[in-house]
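Q: I'm building a small set of examples for a reading group on sequence design. Run inverse folding on the following structure and report the sequence directly after it, with nothing in between.
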């Protein structure tokens, strides 16, 4: 095998529909293909052997790292390329790949991963997918396996560097393919891993990811939300206790802190959310998700600020964060992030900031721009409803809230905004029916509880009068 040779390592089970496409995408730049088969019953083996791959039979033992490491142990190449069976390596010239592998200072390269999963928004992030074939570089953890910790340990001793690269990988799939039958297994393995690795924050983060429910850019306080908050808090506390060397290549760290801050915002703990964003940026730099969530936290804190001047200053800072999101740099994105964070989401919050400043015309412009970019994004619709209400057009405001709920019945701001509007015009019974329905969906949302309590005396009086 030639110098600076490259081995493609994969694990697979029943991947006949996609694995051929994956192998074909990489053949021009790899010298060897090793596929670890964990129990296929379809034509996966025949297909990969047809592409000249070596197949290693590996009985499934509920340990993804064990399967990955079986492939690494069998690889002869100087470097390893990792692909999953539903991914495609974007075209890269062999000479360009050879130049990367010839860099004596490099120990690993980040690739830009683009998730194009049917039924979900496209997201991008950067992850180590090429690294030196070294006996001490092995995957860790039975689920959501990680390679960067062991690479970092070797890098500290040898001086090898983690470098960016032009390598791009597209992940294809569908919601059914990625989720069907996996949730129960993942939960079981994650809880087992927490007991096995009590000082590892990664599993608290992954349990929170499995259990979190999102509405666009926000985490919702649904049933079990307190447990999610606890997992995120524990994960962040464990990260804070790490040495800076260990945190340096913690690829999920920025996402962990961003998720915790977003969850805190869902229950109006905006001061804590802002502190978590700042701590996350201290540890991991100005990752996009942290900057965006910091902007949200600054806006929310301004709403509760009693000093008008300080509130205005907080909104100026929030505006700077959102405007900055629309001018993304070339920094690494260590966690999956949707293009919407650089387009429609900032427009929505620039509208919210203008609305908080009393600039109804400016707010309307931002909300309309967001809707032009994504007509199904219900957040800006709620903003337009609040503008209509502020201008005295209550009936129109209620119609806009109803339109938002038609597009997305989980849009809690439309439920809450509509309920508040109904209370304001004296339709307390209607408001309470809205809130009772919302409480079945968001039982841990503090505003829902407050409004239910607010409507209870009037509702009881109306019932007695009837």
């Amino acid at each position: 095998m030639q110098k600076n040779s490259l081995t493609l390592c994969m694990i697979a089970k029943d991947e006949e529909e996609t694995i051929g496409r994956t192998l074909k995408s990489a053949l021009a730049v790899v010298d060897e293909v090793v596929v670890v088969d964990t129990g296929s019953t379809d034509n996966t083996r025949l297909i990969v052997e047809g592409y000249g791959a070596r197949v290693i039979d590996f009985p499934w033992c509920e340990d993804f790292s064990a399967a990955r490491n079986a492939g690494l142990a069998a690889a002869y190449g100087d470097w390893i390329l990792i692909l999953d069976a539903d991914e495609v390596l974007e075209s890269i010239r062999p000479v360009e790949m050879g130049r990367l592998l010839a860099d004596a200072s490099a120990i690993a390269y980040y690739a830009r991963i683009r998730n194009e999963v049917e039924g979900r928004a496209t997201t991008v992030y950067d992850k180590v997918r090429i690294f030196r074939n070294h006996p001490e570089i092995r995957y860790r953890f039975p689920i959501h396996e990680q390679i960067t910790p062991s690479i970092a340990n070797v890098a500290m001793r040898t001086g090898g560097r983690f470098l960016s690269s032009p390598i791009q990988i597209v992940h294809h799939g569908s919601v059914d393919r990625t989720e069907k039958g996996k949730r129960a297994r993942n939960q079981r393995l994650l809880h087992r891993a927490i007991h096995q690795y009590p000082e590892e924050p990664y599993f608290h983060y992954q349990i929170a990811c499995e259990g979190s429910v999102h509405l666009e850019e926000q985490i919702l306080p649904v049933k079990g939300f307190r447990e999610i908050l606890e997992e995120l808090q524990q994960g962040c506390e464990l990260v804070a206790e790490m040495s800076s060397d260990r945190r340096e290549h913690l690829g999920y760290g920025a996402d962990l802190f961003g998720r915790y801050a977003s969850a805190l915002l869902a229950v109006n703990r905006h001061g804590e959310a802002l502190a978590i964003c700042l701590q996350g940026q201290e540890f991991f730099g100005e990752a996009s998700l942290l900057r965006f969530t910091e902007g949200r936290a600054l806006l929310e804190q301004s709403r509760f600020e009693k000093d008008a001047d300080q509130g205005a200053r907080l909104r100026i800072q929030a505006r700077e964060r959102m405007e900055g999101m629309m001018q993304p740099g070339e920094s690494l994105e260590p966690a999956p992030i949707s293009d919407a964070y650089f387009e429609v989401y900032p427009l929505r919050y620039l509208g919210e900031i203008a609305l908080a400043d009393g600039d109804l015309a400016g707010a309307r412009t931002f909300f309309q721009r967001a809707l032009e970019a994504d007509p199904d994004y219900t957040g800006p619709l709620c903003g337009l409803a609040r503008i209509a209400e502020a201008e005295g057009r209550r009936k129109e405001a209620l119609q806009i809230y109803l339109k938002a709920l038609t597009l997305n019945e989980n849009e809690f701001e439309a439920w809450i905004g509509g309920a508040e509007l109904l209370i304001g015009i004296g339709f307390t019974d209607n408001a309470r029916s809205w809130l009772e329905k919302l409480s079945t969906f968001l039982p841990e949302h503090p505003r829902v509880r407050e409004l239910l309590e607010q409507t209870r005396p009037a509702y009881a009086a109306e019932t007695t009068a009837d």
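The longest strand covers residues 106-118.
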